[in-house]
Prior knowledge:
Layout: E1 4-6, H1 19-45, H2 52-69, H3 73-84, H4 89-105, E2 115-117, E3 121-123, H5 130-154, H6 157-172, H7 178-193, E4 198-200, H8 233-255, H9 272-287, H10 292-299, H11 308-325
Antiparallel strand pairs: 1-4, 2-3
Amino acid sequence: MNEEVCYEILEPSVPEHSSDTLDELIDVLAQSVDDWRTETLPERDNLKGKSQGENERHVIVRGVFLDLFFSDERTNAFIDTLINRSPPLKERLSEIAKISDRLTAMSEPQKEEISWDYENGFKVCSDSDDEIKLLFGEATEILRGFRSEIMGHFSSGAFRQGIDEIYQFVEDIGLPYQWLALELWGLYFSRVLVDDFSWRFTGSLDVEDTAYSQPSPEFHWEFSFDGRAGETVGQVIERLELESRTQIAEARQELTRFVDILPRGKMPNRTKESLQKYAEWFYRNKVAGESIRSIASQAFTEGDRMDDERRKDVRGGIKKAESLLSLGS
């Protein structure tokens, strides 16, 4: 997935370090958090659709719903409450930025051989300048404190309480989806590290192909190819590419012979806009508490607003969105 990352930097009124340095640190951290989400989200999806197309419809509805859900004032107020009880990790970033600026101001560090060890921290040569040794010693202590605070928070009662509150928050709004609780936790933790961190979910979620993530059976495949007398180099390459494609297709078929591959099903190419509309109706009715009549009055033309069929359309769309969202684990 290639989610769009959006965040703002809140600079101190009297900065004791370069704002560019802090911006760069936060940018690296934001990208790391985004990579973490991209790598872990597909593994926890486990969508339960009967076809690839049905799972595709789920992520279309899910993306629109999540963008609305995370723009909701109640959701953001709840996340802020959790953040206020979390360790001040952003302060550690400011400390690291100060160290980086001091290091940049020195002329010698560029000549130093510096290594990093997870247990022991930064290492510099024994004959290095005392100021450099002191500086990297401070950096090591800051990073150790950063790591210790994160690990300590994860094992604390406050963290477990926060997890319970996340599940309770999701349950209280009447949405018993485990995937939603995980999304909520992911965004909360990201904002602990980066102010106002957010993703754009619409159009950014992909469906995991579970067939290809299953353990591979024992497999051996041999491919033999020889050039023929009288062939040019170009002819040999052309035939090699053709035969390679054939061999790969046969090998793929053999590898997946015992795998339960999800049928492709009907893909949502022509229904995407309708599904996005259903997701919005679902959010407005189930989360924001807006009535079916109100939604219908805004969704259709003036001549259709009082038509019972239009309200039935809204109910049907909400029911469809609810059914698709339930396909997530």
